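call fold(seq) -> tokens
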Amino acid sequence: MTASSIGWKKFQSDTRSDGQNQSTYEGSEIDNYLENDWYNSLSSTMKAAIQTTSIKQASYATGNDPDSKQETGCEGQVYNTIDRHAFLPSVSEIGKVVDLKNPDKVKAFLNDDYLWTRDSFQGSAIRAEYLNSSYGGLNHGAVSNTFGVRPAFVIDLSQVNHSVVK
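ret:
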């Protein structure tokens, strides 16, 4: 995941032409932006190093509880496993980096930013999960809101010059 936001973006501006919930990550405006515009703006060296990764969206029954993860979305929507080069991180993936139940740690991680995840809020077809820096926790917001974006991706380190800092 990038260390800082690449800017504030909407998850999805309005109703989707494919009939999916606005909070569905696959094919959303933010999904298309990261996989196409942002990824294609990278250097050829970085693009060659980034591996295609299989990801899946989840939803949260309680919008501010990282332990309320569900496999289906609003009204029982089933999410597909999709392959992407660049994507929004999930709540679970972020939870491996920072303790989502510790507001001080979440605030430090966010550095005064708000951060979209690719996961939805199960109680509404137009709300997705994000991290809120005001109180340091998980929340759900309308997908038409603009929040920070930190793309996630998997790099083959054999493809890039790097050093390990201890």
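The chain is about 20% helix and 25% strand.
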